[in-house]
Amino acid sequence: MTAEVINGKELAKDLREEMKQEVTALKDEGITPHLTVVLVGDNPASKSYVSGKKKACEETGISSEIITMPATASEEELLEVIDKLNADDAVHGILVQLPLPEQIDEDRVIEAITPAKDVDGFHPINIGRMMTGKDTFLPCTPYGIVRMLKSRNIQIEGKHVVVLGRSNIVGKPVGQLLLNENATVTYCHSRTPDLAAFTKDADILVVAIGKAHVIGAEHIKEGAVVIDVGVNRIEDGSLTGDVDFEAAKEKASYITPVPQGVGPMTITMLLENTIKSAKGVLQY
Fold first, then answer.
1. What is the pLDDT of residue 116?
2. For NADP(+), which residues are the binding ones (predicted)?
3. Would you say residue 49 has pLDDT above 80?
4. What is the Cα–Cα distance from 234 to 48, expressed in whole angstroms?
5. Residue 128 φ/ψ, nearest 5 degrees
6. Exactly one of 27, 55, 118, 120 is catalytic; which is it?
7. pLDDT for the residue 235
8. Vertex 62 angle, CA 130 and 11, to 5°
9. 54 in catalytic set
10. 236 is a catalytic site residue
11. Concatenated DSSP letters for 97-128?
């Protein structure tokens, strides 16, 4: 068996074409979806991510702005910027690029963004709505993973999902979203003994732990679906995932590559959340 590759870049392109039409229709009604991204400091990876988000907005017709602040900016200065954006009716989505400099409390910043503009889906109110199955802004990477599975009509209901990783950004929420789809979910992490005992029982394996090639063919059940969220830069400068792709694809039924897998879907779900905010369909 050689796995079928779920190409996130191709799926994202198709979804963005649909979004272009939605944005055009909203503009005809006098509404231009707008996303503001706040970047504190000059972290090269963060600058790259922010640039990618702006480009994606341009492709779909979404208005966007990048507010840059120095790495020395205080928490109070950042909160003042967020307050102004919260009050600006022309701004539909606010995203503060993480990580933040050490003098700034990330939790306080996330909670300062009004839930109605929290298109990252990180505010505790939106997380709570996700947990209880209510309509909300879903965290972008986990939401993108669910959309990738559904794009191939992969059955989630009744399947055993094993999630490697317990971050608030990916691990915890992706497990909850798949639980909401009636999967049986097991979480594994750095303190889990005999990891393979769990991963080899997974119908769907989601790997998000940030270690290159930590999962090989010996960890995977024949015919499993493997979703690789990890992005690791190795010695030759190339990017690779948490899964040994070449080995795993010989046992899996479906697998996501790195790059061009989950990453493009993350930004696409951010665009979808911004459009959703502009439509005003969520009530808080």
1. 98
2. 165-167, 231
3. yes
4. 18
5. -65, -40
6. 120
7. 83
8. 65
9. no
10. no
11. PSS--TTS-HHHHHHHS-GGG-TTS-SHHHHH
Residue with tokens 């017709």: 61
Residue 197, token pair as written in the block: 């005992």
Tens-digit pLDDT profile for residues 115-138: 999 999 999 999 999 999 999 999
166 has binding-site annotation = yes
Catalytic, out of 53, 117, 249, 251? 53
221 is known as an active-site residue: no
Distance CA 223, CA 218 (A): 13
Q: Are strands 232-233 and 239-240 parallel, antiparallel or unpaired?
A: antiparallel
The interaxial angle of helices 8-28 and 140-151, nearest 10 deg, is 110
Q: Which residue has the tokens 């897998």?
A: 261
DSSP bridge pairs for 161: 185, 204
| Average of per-residue pLDDT across 178-189 | 97
Burial of 179 (0-12, 13-18, 19+ CB in 10 A): middle
Angstrom distances, CA of residue 216 to CA of 80, 211, 236, 282, 283: 47, 12, 20, 42, 45
Task: Tell me the C-alpha distance between 62 and 274, whole Å.
Answer: 8
Domains of the chain: 29-114 (3.40.50.10860), 140-263 (3.40.50.720)
Q: Catalytic residue among 97, 118, 251, 276, which?
A: 97
Rounded Cα distance between 185 and 178, Å, is 7
The predicted-structure confidence for 58-95, as pLDDT tens digits, reads as follows 999 999 999 999 999 999 999 999 999 999 999 999 99
pTM across the whole model:
0.95
96 labelled ligand-binding:
no
